[in-house]
Structures are given as C-alpha cells and as structure tokens.
UniProtKB/TrEMBL annotation:
The lineage of its organism: Eukaryota, Metazoa, Chordata, Craniata, Vertebrata. It comes from Nyctiprogne leucopyga. Its EC number is 2.4.1.1. It is an enzyme of class 2 (transferase). It catalyses: [(1->4)-alpha-D-glucosyl](n) + phosphate = [(1->4)-alpha-D-glucosyl](n-1) + alpha-D-glucose 1-phosphate. This is Alpha-1,4 glucan phosphorylase.
C-alpha cells in the first residue's frame, strides 16, 4: 500500500488546506510525509495491483472490501553492503499505525489440524487447534466522492486457554510462552515473487485469511435483508447475487473448499446446490505462467493441516473427472492433465486447476497473457468452457501515480484539458492536439527536468554520488528475477563502457543507469545479479576516462515511496522481459503516464501500450512469442551468439576473467555458466537487437524536442491503463455490479435527498 497520508489528503481534496495549516505551524509537509513508513504487505506487482484496485473501487463507488493479512513484518528492508543484498526485518509497526482500527468485536475462530468424523448428523471436523483472527480496518477513500471503503487485515491471536485446556496440569509458564506458535501465523510475509515455496506456515497463512474472511462475509450476508431466515435456517439462494469474491492468484484458493465445507457441513446444503452457489460466487485471476510460480501443495501436508478440506477437494476432483470422462471416454491422458491431483512422486494439489474448476470466470491480466493462458497453460480447460476465460488488462491508479507523485505534470495537463481526466483517464487523448504546441512541449520538458534535478539531489543526499541531471535517466526498477533480464541491461552497460574506453573522444550521449529491486532471500542467482550490477558500477563510476558520460546506480530498498520519486524523473523505462514471461507489468504503465519513453519487448501490457500509442512511439525490439517458441523448438544455443558478436564476447569475457571482481576472479562463474548452459530466458538471443535499439534511443535523446513530443504522445495514449477502466470491466463482466458516480453527500449535509438506488451486491 505504501504511505497513506498524502493519498488521503488528495482523495479528500484537503491537500492544499493541510499544506497551508502545517506551514503556519512552522512545519514542512514534505518532511512530515517522509516520516511515515511504507506498508509493504505484499511482493512486487501483485500486491501493488491490489492497492490500485482498492483505490479505484472506492473511486467508482463500489461496495467493496479488500481482505488480507496484517503482517507484523512486511517485505524485508534491503541494505546493500559491499555490493551484496542484506535483508533486515521490516518493523513497520514499531511506532504504531495511525490508519488502522482494531475491531475485536468481530474476532473470529480459525481451525487447524484435528480429524474428520462421519456421523448420522453429517460430517464434523473435530479435535482442532483454534487460532483467533483479529481484524484491523483501514479506511480506503475514493477520489473526491465522499466514499470510504474498508481494507480489513487479519491478525492472529492465541485463545486465552491456549495449551491450558489440555490435561496439561504442568508448565503454565511454557503454555503462555507457546501462545507465540499460534500468533506466528501473521508474523511475517513470505518474500517470494513469482516463486512457490511449499512451507507449512505459508499454507497456514493462506487458510487463515480465507477462513476468517469467509466467516466475515457470511456474517454480513446473514445480517442483511437478503440472508432471510426460514425457521432459523438461512436461505443461500441469493448469495452469488449479493456476494462476489475475486481470488487474487491462487494464494486464497482454499476459499473454494472452505465455502463448500461451510455450506455442506455447517449449513447442511446438498452438495450440488452448494457447488452451484460456490462456482457462481468465485472468480479467479491468474498472474503468472512461470511453472515454478504455480502453487502445488503436497497432499500429505494438506491432510495433516486441513483434513476435511482434502476430502472436499477429492470429491470436487472426482465429480470433475467423471464429467471429463463422460465427454472424452478412454482419454486417460486428458484426465491426468486436467486432474486437480498430480500423481507421480509426492502427490500434489494443483491450486490453479482447483481455482478454474471452482470459479465462473478466469482471467489473465493482459491480452497476450490471456491468450497464453487459453492456448497453452490451461488449454484443456479453455477448450471445455471457452466462455469462462476472459482478459482484464491491468491498470494503475492515476491518483497516486500522477497527482501524488508528479504534481507538476498533473497541473500542466489540467491547464490544457481540465481536471476531469483524473476520474476519466481516457480524456488524456485530448493532449494529442498539443503535440505541435511548442510552448506546451517546452513546459513538459521543463517539468521533467525539475523532477530529474529533485531526484538527483535525493541521490546525492542518500548515496553521496554526483549525478548529471542533463544525462538520460535510464531506469530499470522491479523485482530482481532472471525472466525480467536485469542481466541484459547489465551487459548493455558493460558494452557502453567498452565503447567509451575504446574511443573516448567520440560523441556519447550521457546516461545515468538506475537499477533497483529486491531479490527473494533464497534466490541465489538474483542475489548474484545484484552483486554483479554493483561490481560493474564500482568500475564504471570510478574510471576517469568515463567521467560523467556514464554512471550506474543500484537503488537500495526499492518500494512504493521510492517509486513515487524515481518514476517522475525517468527518461527511459526498461521493460525487457523475454516475450511470453511477464503477465502484464504495471511499472511500464506508471512510466508511460509520467512522460518516460519505453524500451521493451512485445511482452505483457507493452503490447497494448504499443497498440495505443503506435509502435513507432515505443522502442520495441527483440523476439516475439512466436520467435521464442521457434527457438525452443530448434534448441537455444548461447555459444552461437557469443561467437558471432564481438562486443557480447568482450563483455562476457570481462565478467568471467574477474575484470569487475579482481579480488575474486571467479566470483561470477555461476552467472556466466547459467548464461551459456541453462538460460531459460535467452539473454544472448536478444542482446544484439537490444544494443541496436539503445543506439536509436540515444540518437533521439539528442533531439530534445522530438523526444518530448514522443513522450507527450505516450502520455496521451496512457488513458487505457487506468485501474478505473480495469475495475469497470471486472464489475460489468465478472461481478455483475454497476459503478456509481453518485457523490455521497458529506456528513454535514442532510442525507434524505439521496435515497436513490445504490448498486446491489458486494465485492470482496
């Protein structure tokens, strides 16, 4: 979520008043804002997407709740020591959190372990361990519409009789100390992005948030006029009409068997009715096609932790496979491919398959990604129910990612086209009329320059490095991952360095290359990539021949509040994942909206950005998805590129020989070995096209006016990438709710005037 103060002031229309009031107290609002900790309760893009979605849902007046876990320790703080990433605990609650309100009156029990009893009265899950879920509510204000929604985060608490109700007359002290075991559930965020680690505590976290949330939703449904009770028993027929639950990836997939357990075991609904209601309630968003990221939980772990849920999953699978067999008799391979249970070695539950079978809608997050989901990853399922599969291209909130972080540009735009664009970003197309307006072009360039100077001062203060603000700010910020190819950027840096050294007198367009992002603590290759970038920076930044032509900076501890500083100051945005690997990306959209130009592959939402702005207004290079597929068919041989491209060979030889690590010459042998013999993401295959494309970038940068015009064309085409548009599509195509642009009257005005229809239903 990042910081809340400035976002709240903007959405409430109070920023100027607060700035003024604080100024009159002899304080500086910006200094005050810098004191607030980021709430970093997720990894990379998936967590930030949820935050943008909450802002849009409130702004569109949807009755929506965001549910998650109130981690005591969020994503780790990254320190760079001697070029290596070092993790520190993110103790973000150290000074308290003024935005949250604990709601102990809504505390709920969550059960683990135990066993299943089948009796005359039905099935019971007994002898369980209980953990309490304590909700904390954070307000989510809409933009200037007097709507405030809720983000409800659950914290784990041990019940007071924890370990004391057993016949354990013994160690009272130890029993109280053991309360920590229960409360560890919400202690810390697992820091993996696009990677599945099958740890028991993680599965506990996933079920914890799901079980608490579903009880909360059902309590609210029963309290509403729709949960009409006939002789104490609730009628759930209208449940899917009143409740929509969106699964943000497979992490909350246990919600499907959990809702079935509630309906069948507790509410005594017949299976078929329960299943129909469940399917109509859930929808699933897929966020990745990388096989190592797909959640596949071992059956024995689920059996130990959630025995009843395993039985329910088996039953869901049996009925699912019976249906497939009736359609495709004797096609055993299809049954194997489509089963929720993977046999062979340790039996595992494929959580994506569970989500597809248990949902009425499945979507990818960019056109190209949704196509890959349909035609490759879940092909069998899409052939069975093509109408279930949709696309919902991701978006970003223009409130945080333009108004808040780039007030200069936001104001310039408002002067030209009015202020309405903040709620309807498609109006940015009106800027096309001003591409040839020389004054406007100069103003846009001036705002960018001011942002660059401000960021350069920040870098000087934080890193003690002198930055040339007229150099091109070439920025690559995102989680460190092989598929995102920070290594390819690094090879380009080395190539530029070698060219400068070879011919110091030749004209060179000065660059400041800024790379930032966290590596998962257990991801060895990602950590080596960070070390390599820092080793290269060490050499480049201290070579007198290079001077201020080329500077390399690794941005420590990249996070939302740092993104808000670097993105408005960026000239060139690096979006260079191997085609077919980045589901969407959202940083790409933030840079586009803030007047940076994009160098990128035809991957994720880059494809649609090129479609909106015109391919000639982005620097598109490299293999397309078809080329990657073809290269896989032929067999990718890195050696061929190394032999054919002298500049690539030189760069690799320097890494290999210890040119960048003289004290430890074979420090990067693992990296080089990977690039030659098991590079799944084909860095060498795109290197030549990338370097050539970068030459075009430098050429255009020399013509400041042409560059700025292209930036304006990009801003004018960024309207599609508002999360408001994304959420309207979810609302209409999946949740069946209508956004309302009704402005709720403020609390100081009488309400009776606004007794109009508000949209039915709730989205969780």
């Amino acid at each position: 979520m990042g910081r809340t103060l400035q976002n709240t002031m903007i959405n409430l229309g109070l920023q100027n008043a607060c700035d003024e009031a604080v100024y009159q107290l002899g304080l500086d609002m910006e200094e005050l804002e810098e004191i607030e900790e980021d709430a970093g309760l997720g990894n990379g893009g998936l967590g930030r997407l949820a935050a943008c979605f909450l802002d849009s849902m409130a702004t569109l007046g949807l009755a929506a709740y965001g549910y998650g876990i109130r981690y005591e320790y969020g994503i780790f703080n990254q320190k760079i020591r001697d070029g290596w990433q070092v993790e520190e605990a993110d103790d973000w609650l150290r000074h308290g959190n003024p935005w949250e309100k604990a709601r102990p009156e809504y505390m709920l029990p969550v059960h683990f372990y135990g066993r299943v009893e089948h009796g005359a009265t039905g099935t019971k899950w007994v002898d369980t361990q209980v953990v309490l879920a304590l909700p904390y509510d954070t307000p989510v204000p809409g933009y200037m519409n007097n709507t405030v929604n809720t983000m409800r985060l659950w914290s784990a608490r041990a019940p007071n009789d924890f370990n004391l109700r057993d016949f354990n007359v013994g160690d009272y002290i130890q029993a109280v100390l053991d309360r920590n075991l229960a409360e560890n559930i919400s202690r810390v965020l697992y820091p993996n992005d696009n990677f599945f680690e099958g740890k028991e505590l993680r599965l506990k976290q996933e079920y914890f948030v799901v079980a608490a949330t579903l009880q909360d939703i059902i309590r609210r449904f029963k309290a509403s006029k729709f949960g009409s009770t006939e002789s104490v028993r609730t009628v759930f027929d209208s449940f899917p009409d009143q409740v929509a639950i969106q699964l943000n990836d497979t992490h909350p997939a246990m919600a499907i068997p959990e809702l079935m357990r509630i309906f069948v075991d507790i509410e005594k609904l017949p299976w078929n009715k329960a299943w129909d209601i469940t399917k109509r309630t859930f929808a699933y968003t897929n966020h990745t096609v990388l096989p190592e990221a797909l959640e596949r939980w071992p059956v024995d772990l689920v059996e130990k932790l959630l025995p009843r849920h395993l039985q329910i999953i088996y039953e869901i699978n049996q009925r699912h496979l019976d249906h497939i067999a009736s359609l495709f008799p004797h096609d055993v391979d299809r049954l194997r491919r489509m089963s929720l249970i993977e046999e062979g070695g340790t039996k595992r539950i494929n959580m994506a398959h569970l989500c597809i079978v248990g949902s009425h809608a499945v979507n990818g997050v960019a056109k190209i990604h949704s196509e890959i989901v349909k035609t490759q990853v879940f092909k069998d399922f899409a052939e069975l129910e093509p109408e279930k599969f949709q696309n919902k291209t991701n978006g970003i909130t223009p409130r945080r990612w333009l108004l808040l972080c780039n007030p200069g540009l936001a104001e310039l735009i408002a002067e030209k086209i009015g202020e309405d664009y903040v709620r309807d970003l498609s109006q940015l197309t009106k800027l096309q009329e001003f591409v040839e307006d020389d004054l406007f072009v100069r103003e846009v360039a001036k705002v960018k320059q001011e942002n660059k100077v401000k960021f350069a001062l920040y870098l000087e203060k934080e890193y003690k490095v002198k930055i040339n603000p007229s150099s091109m700010f070439d920025v690559h910020v995102k989680r460190i991952h092989e598929y995102k190819r920070q290594l390819m950027n690094c090879l380009h840096i080395i190539t530029m360095y070698n060219r400068i050294r070879k011919d110091p007198a030749k004209l060179f367009v000065p660059r400041t290359v800024i790379i930032g992002g966290k590596a998962a603590p257990g991801y060895h290759m990602a950590k080596m990539i960070i070390k390599l970038i820092n080793a290269v920076a060490q050499v480049v930044n201290n070579d007198p021949v290079v001077g201020n032509k080329l500077k390399v900076i690794f941005l420590e501890n990249y996070r939302v509040s740092l993104a808000e500083k670097v993105i408005p100051a960026t000239d060139l945005s690096e979006q260079i994942s191997t085609a077919g690997t980045e589901a969407s990306g959202t940083g790409n959209m933030k840079f586009m909206l803030n007047g940076a130009l994009t160098i990128g592959t035809m991957d994720g939402a880059n494809v649609e950005m090129a479609e909106e702005a015109g391919e000639e207004n982005l620097f598109i290079f490299g293999m397309r998805v078809e080329d990657v597929t073809e290269l896989d068919r032929e067999g990718y041989n890195a050696q061929v590129y190394y032999d054919r491209l002298p500049e690539l060979k030189q760069a690799i030889d320097q890494i290999k020989s210890g040119f960048f690590s003289p004290k430890e010459p074979d420090l990067f042998k693992d990296v080089v070995n990977m690039l030659f013999y098991h590079d799944r993401f084909k860095v060498f295959a795109d290197y030549e096209a990338y370097v050539k494309c970068q030459e075009k970038v430098s050429e255009l940068y020399l013509n400041s006016k042409a560059w700025t015009k292209m930036a304006i064309r990009n801003i004018a085409a960024a309207g599609k990438f508002s999360s408001d548009r994304t959420i309207k599509e979810y609302a209409r195509d999946i949740w069946d709710v209508e956004p309302s642009d009704l402005k709720i009257p403020p609390p100081n005005e009488p309400r009776d005037a606004v007794e109009e229809k508000t949209p039915n239903g709730t989205v969780a």
